[in-house]
UniProtKB/TrEMBL annotation:
Pfam families: NfeD (PF01957). This is NfeD-like C-terminal domain-containing protein. Residues 85-140 form the NfeD-like C-terminal domain. The keyword Acetylation does not apply. The chain crosses the membrane at residues 7-30, 42-69. InterPro entries: Membrane_assoc_protease (IPR052165), NA-bd_OB-fold (IPR012340), NfeD-like_C (IPR002810). SUPFAM superfamilies: NfeD domain-like (SSF141322). The keyword Transmembrane applies. Its main location: membrane. It comes from the Bacteria. Keywords: Membrane, Transmembrane, Transmembrane helix.
Length: 141
C-alpha cells in the first residue's frame, strides 16, 4: 500500500466515524469520495487526479444525493410528541369547580383551563381536547 491509499482509507474511516457519531448522513459522501480516490490510486493515477476525483465525487454526492436522503429520513421518522401533546384525548376528573378556580391538575402539574361546552363541577369527567399555549382545553363528557 502506498501512502496516498492509506491517506484515503484514513479520510474515509474518519468521515464514516463522524457520520456514525452524529447521525447526520453528511460525511458518508466524503467516505465514498475517498473510496473513489483510492480506486484511482490503485489504477495508478497521480495524487492530483485522486484529489480532484475525491473533491468531485464528494461534492456531487453532497449536492445531489444528500438533500434526497435527508428529506427521505425526515419523512420516515415520526416526531416525538411533547409531554403536553400526549395529554390530548385523556380523560380527567375535575378536583374543584372550574368556576371558582380555573385550574386543573394533570400528572401533578396545574394547568389553566379553557372549557368548551358545559361548566365543570367537582367530580365531573372531562376530556382534554387540545392545548392553547399554556392552557388545556377540556370538554365535559
Amino acid at each position: 500500500m502506498t501512502g496516498s491509499l492509506i491517506l484515503w482509507i484514513i479520510i474515509g474511516l474518519v468521515a464514516l466515524g463522524i457520520d456514525i457519531a452524529t447521525s447526520a448522513f453528511l460525511f458518508v459522501w466524503f467516505t465514498l469520495g475517498a473510496i473513489a480516490a483510492g480506486v484511482a490510486q490503485i489504477f495508478g493515477y497521480s495524487f492530483i487526479v485522486q484529489l480532484i476525483i475525491f473533491i468531485i465525487v464528494s461534492g456531487l454526492l453532497v449536492i445531489l444525493v444528500y438533500p434526497i436522503v435527508k428529506k427521505s429520513i425526515k419523512n420516515s421518522v415520526k416526531p416525538t410528541l411533547t409531554r403536553e401533546k400526549t395529554y390530548i384525548g385523556r380523560v380527567v376528573v375535575v378536583d374543584e369547580d372550574i368556576i371558582e378556580k380555573r385550574l386543573i391538575k394533570v400528572d401533578g402539574v396545574y394547568w389553566s383551563v379553557v372549557e368548551k361546552g358545559e361548566v365543570l363541577e367537582k367530580g365531573d369527567k372531562a376530556e382534554i381536547v387540545g392545548i392553547e399555549g399554556n392552557k388545556i382545553i377540556i370538554k365535559k363528557i
